[in-house]
Amino acid sequence: MRDAAWTLRRLDPSQDPGDALARGIPARVPGTVSGALRDALGEDRVATVLATDGPDTVWEYRTRVTTAGGRHRFMSTGVATVAQLLVADRVVHESHSAFAPWDVIVELPSGPCEIALRVLPTASVSVPRKPRARWLSPLVSDRSLRWRRTPLIGSIDWPGALPVLGPWGGLRAVPLLSSAADDDTPHPSLGLVPRAVRTRVGEDGSGVVTVELGPTTGTTPDLYADTAGSAGAAAELADVGCSADPDVPVARGAAVEHARETVHITVEPPYEVDAQPVTAERVVTASDATSRETFTVDVTVPDPAMWWPHGMGEQPLYRVRVRTGQGECTYAVGFRSVCAEPRDRDHRGLALRINDVPVFARGAVWAGADPFEVAADPQRTRDVLERLHAGGSTMIRVPGTACYETEDFHRACDELGLMVWQDVALGPQDPPDDSEWRAGLHHEVRYLASRLASHPSTVVISGGTEVIQAPVLAGRPAEQWRTDVVLRDVPRAVGEADADVVVVPSSPCSDADLDAAQHAYETGEASGERAASSSVPTVAPTDAADGVSHYFGVGAYGRPLEDAVARGVRFAAEALAFAVPPEPAAVREQFGTDGPLDDGDSADAWRAGVAHDPGAEWTFEDTTAIYVHRLFLDRDSDPDAGLATPGQPASDGAGAGHVERLEYERAALAHVFQRTFAQWRSEESPCRGALVLSALSMAAGPGWGVLDASGRPTAAWYGMRRACAPVAVSFLPAGGDGLPVHVWNDGPTPFTATLRLTVATVHGGCQQPLDIAVTVPARGETVIRADLADGTFRDLDHAYGFGEREYDAVSAQLVNPSGRVLARDVHLTGGPRRNDAPDPGLDAHWVRTEQGEWAVAVTAFGLARFVALDLPRGAVAEDGYVHVLPGETVHVPVSGALTDEGRAATRVRALGVPSVPVGAESE
User: Fold this and answer.
1) Which DSSP letter does residue 153 get?
2) Which in 346, 578, 650, 892 has the greatest CB count within 10 A?
3) Which 3 state secondary structure label does DSSP give 509?
4) DSSP symbol at 125
């Protein structure tokens, strides 16, 4: 069915039979209704069409296949949400969960056969109305959704959020071979197929590949049986074929007691590893079955090459081939260990170690690669992940409000070295304390953990998003803050899957919650520690320094940049929420103008894409404006605390038009993201992880994403990249304690380089550069005091404020022995504000790098602040919002599609001055 052509129809008694949706539109599987509508009708029609769905609307995917007949195994990672599988117009399977895997055995007729997937209204399946939820979430107004296993994303009033409907997890059919004995085989076959593959690293350093197998036998629906109709068939066959979660045992008859299966396993090293394949052949018998009627085979790999996060080492992936009587399956796996560091009174919060090495995890909360399609095109998914990778990210978090991701996503993360934090699909609602519901969730989580156990990138599995925080902020008593669903059920299911991950009960949570979840993961039992109803809590699950936090002090709550350190943030699974405007070319493309709020025709469209939370009277555009004023406009606020006397306000005309305001917003965000991440990355900071909200904006305009809705970088991405690259340099002003330069090296080996410091004066020139030899340890940091680097003290940040300011900026370049610049940063003395700054005299032209790639060489006569390129569609600047010192030439690399016309149309911008064209390449 991989090449099957699918048609999507809307079945609704109220629609016109001649309607295009009634006739059908092309669709792809895996895919969703919103993606098919976008591809067939255009982006502007999707929300309108979905809004007209009525209580009886059914979406049907249909295809025709031709087979030789016989037993086939139909499999899917998930279909959202109330769905039926029909073969030859008979219902053979029904599911009420978007996240429950499908594994159904069907006897197909020979020749042509119709296959259909019907997606029924979610509300067509009733849920209990009692017991009532103990607390409500302002994010989700539909109270019934706490019972429904469906993605919450389409039910939250966020820009671009669409309901997830359809086979996001795909649908494939595999023919099954007969399990009966033949003349040469005296024993019947167990008919085993791989259910899961996982790896671990033993105490002796060897790698172990564990293959878990299960039988394909089970109840097979008879397509020709005389049933009472589709509804009756669906009820009868709802449990056809156990899912890939082997919680459901398969009954064994007397013949099966003597059955056996030969399992052949080959573990092939990657081509860059000098090692031989490891092979194993095991004969398993019915007596080898576990209590869940599964079979496991272990293969030891001596001295495996270890998988490392991006920047810390390589990502070698081994190929595992598993062959049974039912055929051969292939997996890509990696070897690594992961654990949380021990916690005590002096070491609070979550801190991860990979291969027993501490890591500073940084990255973003995943919002998908395509705003219209959960099952995004694999290349688009990889493009977005590669862009995050290029920005210095080492971790991606899939939140509980979203849908689970496809194998394409997880394979790409394995290959790119992007650690994955996977939330169970639970949001800020009260999970039902209902045995049947909890059993279904256990089944779902165990399958999810088994599926992800083969991916070395998956390092954290969490019980959901804000499940613990929601009752705290709702003012509920402390005994209602925690539920066994996330403290015991989820960790226990992950432990049963034997997935080598760190478990987190929910994000955010406290240290006590982390300990309880770890206990359940290891033992399957609750810790038994619960606060008495009369006790007074000493720690809240929302505390920044404890457990896991969602930190928005810098961002939504408008705190100064130092708050990110003063609060003692340990691991922020969400952080830095701002409305981030796209780059000028993207704004023009999306809204037809550079300043949408200055144009009545585009203003409403712009406001529709502004990041906001349901029910709030403010938006995150207001948040961004706070930092624009604090950095550039206000008289008495200076987040850098760099000036001993208050700065003067900018001229009254600053930011009067939307175009100019957007430029100030971009500059402010580049500064805030770089400074905040640099503070967190410093060894002096307790922070061991920070993930921004979010990776990608889901609508045109200023969303949360460090990438815009089309996947292009924003100013926030450029700031984050400078502080988060594997090798990076960043100034962190310390007020009266000088101007330290931090140099980071995530790599596995130390390196020696030259740190070149250049000081620009207020008179328009630069002092002679000062070269300092530095050795940066492996996976470590070196700090140099720029203000003391020449053997004297220079007040480079004007922290003491004696007399007139003498210096304008300081540049730090990290140069390797061959002369290549590895990293660069510039600190603006006293902060980024400049009053009545003169025109810096920008000039730029195209050049070719040594590798033959395009770059723009930018020079300036004076100090040019927040310099960035304005490029045509298809081209991307790999750096931006940089500061150029007087007389300095800075090369900005450009990737992507560039034509002669595109190069001629490119302009270079700097804050507060008109843009200038980029000249042609010099002959």
Assistant:
1) G
2) 578
3) strand
4) S
